[in-house]
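look at this stuff:

>
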Amino acid sequence: MEEKTLNEKESLEIITRMIQETKNKLEVGDGNMLLLWGYVSVCTAILIYALLLWVQTPQVNWLWFLIPLIGYGVTQKQKRKEANVKPHSSSYVDKISAGIWKSVGIIACLFAAICMAFMFCGYNCWVLMFAYAFIIIGFGSIAQGVIIREQSLTFGGLFSIAAGGVVASCAICDIPIYITWAIPLYILCFIVMMIIPGHIINRKAKKLCRKN
């Protein structure tokens, strides 16, 4: 019994140390990724919002695909650059974080494929992607916030999921979702969920570097 208790204590200490070490490393790198995806999402949404008010044609909505195209392309380029400059081994918690966001990306592809299939059948269900942006990405932010113990990420994710619940409820109840409030809400969510936490994490990283 005593040996089992000792092993449990050791395991908890190891897990705690892994999380703390990963937190410090993620603060340095993860803030930039949050800022990248946050600013790309916000800038794209502002562009689409302006064009929809100006030209008022639904074809403008295809510009939403700029987010994964730009975001993924820059992310892969940055990863290759960091790997060449400062190669490092990933911890188990690093792999969990990567798995979370990889799952978020896979869900995005699946949802987009579903929307495409319905579109070819004469139905418009692209609001699913809008709800995805709020709810699924919000969940990813919460999970990341829990892993690195960053409350701003957790709060931002909760805020985004709540906003997604409103959008989904409107769609279910056949309440019109107008761009005049839906896109500004999208922009606000990504500011709260990614841009603000990204700046907070980078600021903490600078303080950590000064101490070390």
